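Thread title: Can someone regenerate the structure for this chain?

I was given the following input by a collaborator and told the matching structure tokens would be attached. They weren't. Posting the sequence so someone can regenerate them.
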Amino acid sequence: MKKLLIVLGSLLVVVVALLALLPSLLNVNRYHDRIQSELQAHLGRQVELGQMSLGMFPPAFKVQNAVIGEDPKYNSGRPFAQTAELDIRLKLRPLLRRDIEVESLRMVHPQVELIHAEDGAWNFSTIGTHNTQQTKEEQASGQAKPLQLDRFQIDDGAVAVTDLETHQPRMEYSHIDLLLRDYAPGKPFEISLSTHLPGGGKQVVKLDGHGGPIDDATLISTPFEATLQLDQVALSSAQQYLNSQALAGTEADISGSIKFKNDAGKVSTSGTVRMDNVVAHGHRLGYPIELNCNANDDLKAEVIQVSNTQLKIGTAPFGINGTINGKTTPPLADLKLNTQNASIAELVKLAEAFGVALSPGMNPSGSLSADLTARGPLAGPAVSGTIRAAQLKVSGVVANALQINLNMAPPGTDLLKTLTGRITLNLNDGKLTGVDMAQQLGAIGKFTGASKIGDGATHISELTGTFDIKDGRATTNDLKALTDAGTIAAVGTASLVDQGLNMQATAVLSKSSSQQVGGTAIGGLMNTAMANKNGEIVIPVLVTGTIPAPKVAPDMQAMAKMRMSNLLPSFSNPGQLTQGVLGKLGGSGGGLGGVLGALSGDKAPGAAASNQQQNNGNTAQDTVNGLVGLFGKKNPKK
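Best answer:
Regenerated them for you:
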């Protein structure tokens, strides 16, 4: 028994040795044409094979410079696939019957051409579905051999995609590894796809999934489920895959996991993608951007439904819901966006990084909440809704609470210079840090004591108004503010591009403040200020300069018109003129009534206005004095 085992073992060694030597003793190229014909029968495409070699464990052919032709229907001028090396593994049992059946294919450094035709079909969908070498009788008798592969592998390949349906240019993607298992008509399959992008870090993109059976009539209806994983992928390295000009000049490290599921052409997507070390156009953000997505894409209608999706910019979460229609050119969006307590500084830094330049020195800060609707071209939709800011600080303006209702048209490339639409403001508990309006009014009217705060700012209890914006220039005719200097109404323009101001304003002091500022001791009152029938001082002014540094001067033209028409505004409504200008301020009230009586000689309002016009020299001089004077006899601070 022992000797028998030794003999059998020796014979086995000899057989193995002979089988190992067999490939070198056989000229496999004798079967070149048959193998090439078999591949053509399986693929339904013209096949060209170069030099071949044989391996026995397992039975396999190695082919140099293999080429698989294109379906004539697509007429691309390029072969469907060509590879420097093609490994063909054969099934052993059919081989013992002198039949050749391919078990697996492996391509090394291949170039594959994918074409999406105008009718929506892909060129690879016809592989194995028709046989140029078989007769109609063979196909009718069921002798046709559809393509079946236990394993199809691509090592370090390149894939080019031409989309004739959407008229997109040919794009080439490289460094691709693919493994397809159990591929056969009418059966499910498994797929693993990965690419190692050039550059530092892991730089790995990987897709693992399963699907099938393949729907030959409508490929997008093929059931498919997969997970896409990104591991430290540099955005610059992924540019050729994303094919997005919007991301040009942007760098980041991307990681995340996204799940896809296709059910009859409707793809559901969910997962998280995070961008770290974000640099846009040379600006480093200093915080991450994270997307938690939940969307459904109707591939036939080309409409994406977004629901419960959150975009987190630094610490600011934005909820996104709505639809994107990709069938139109350009794609159209109908989205709702909301956020609570987002950092204004972080959002401004992001906007500046993507080319939205604010005026120098604005430095906004605070928190922002918004409920917005975006409709129109995806790259620049019209935006409407409400924005609320808290603890807002921006050059020249501080506000504890600010609400903006806006309705803006789609912007152009330069956001501020093309901004068009309507904005309604409602500001509470704020201040203008660049100007003390009470001091300025006191200098113009030559009185003191209108404000006791004295911190060099104008304190605003409430500010309301509507701005119509055209190409970055805002125009208002109903701006109204309640300040420590009194109520102020203004009309005119403000530039969002250079922050320039050109406004006419009317300030009205309350009756108590008017009496407080000096009464009969006010010098030059009739030249630069007036009093209405309620005993309230009225001062028309011109506001120029910039938002951070406004300049205030008396508006002599507006004052003359008010005198001529015998109409003045009131403290409660500084934007509306009412009857009763230069009459006495009532009974024994004295104060302003005494001043008006002394300066007008108790004449009728018209006579007082006429007297003012006859003394233009004195008026001009008093105006100059009002501009350079401060409270009383003091000189203004510089």
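The chain has a mean pLDDT of 77.
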